Amino acid sequence: MPPASARRRWLPLAIAAATLAAAALVLVLVMGMDRTPVTPAAAPASPVATPTATPTPTPSETGAPVDATSYDVSGLPAAEVYSVIPALPVDADPGAALPGLLATPASAAIPVFAAPGEAPVAQLPQAQTYGGTTVPVVERQTNWVRVLVSGRQGTPPGGNPAQLSGWLRASDVTLTEDATRVDVSLSARTVSIVTPAGTETIATDFGWGAAATPTPLGRTFIMHTAVVPSFGYTRGHPLVYLGVQSPTLAGFSGASVAVTAFHYHDAHSGAISNGCLRLDAAAIDRLAQLPLGTPVVVTG
């Protein structure tokens, strides 16, 4: 062991050395803490642009303005098979394309107009004995539809018995989409049912009106379908009555009307009838399945 004097000289040095070592350790720890990596703050998210909604364009109206008048139609003639209504026009454009719509009155009886904006000249009931209440649309506007209706403007030989038409307010009817029609070609001797899916030719020969009692040309519609047992020539098959009448006969077989119809007859080939279209059994039964109001277009 060193002498006491030597120990007295070493002790202060040892204490000083220990103090310096402790200070160095603290400095290392502090420097180490300062070197701890700092995670950088996330950059602020870019703002998301909200797309501006494109306004839906308001469809523009076509045709005549709306007519909201409440009409009393009880005193007006019904557009039905026995009526003669001089104020209603005949179909002015029988070769025009059809929009594929059927119209039915939405109430018990609705006004029929010769032209939009005028006073009504007839009524179309919701129900009639001989049909004619579901009618084809031949022209459509926003507030109005032009349709074919039963009856005549006049009787032959002095009056015009061609297919009648009239205007209905769109708010007065229920519209049904149906693009089915019947095409009759006298020259080709064909009767065809035309739908968006295709053409079904149901007759390649049939009977039509003789020269003195021709079948009316142009467009009309299926007005009424019925089996009439007293008409023995139909052999129990239905008659499909049309909304147009003979161009030459004021009446027929004691009646005051001369309605054109599809029906069965044993003789059903060529220009042999009083204006009706005579078909075989399969063809007339097929036509009888079509809904009332289906357009029928007859060409020469």
Shape: globular
CATH class of the domain at 181-299: Mainly Beta
Describe the sheet with the most strands: 8 strands, mixed
CATH architectural arrangement of the domain at 181-299: Beta Barrel
Q: CATH superfamily of the domain at 181-299, called what?
A: L,D-transpeptidase catalytic domain-like
Oligomer: single chain
CATH fold description of the domain at 181-299: L,D-transpeptidase catalytic domain-like
Helix content: 10-25%
Taking pLDDT < 50 over at least 5 consecutive residues as the criterion, the unreliable ranges are 1-41
Overall pLDDT metric: 87
Radius of gyration: 45 Å
Give the amount of beta strand, in percent: 25-35%
Q: How many runs of DSSP E, i.e. beta strands?
A: 17
Explain this structure:
This protein is of the alpha+beta class. Among the domains are: 101-177, SH3 type barrels (Roll), CATH 2.30.30; 181-299, L,D-transpeptidase catalytic domain-like. Helix content is 13%, strand content 30%. The protein has two helices and 17 strands. The strands form four sheets. The protein has an eight-stranded mixed sheet. The protein has a five-stranded antiparallel sheet with strand order 6-5-4-1-7, with no helix packed on it. It is globular.
List keywords for this structure.
300 residues, alpha+beta, SH3 type barrels, L,D-transpeptidase catalytic domain-like, 8-stranded mixed beta sheet, 5-stranded antiparallel beta sheet, 13% helix
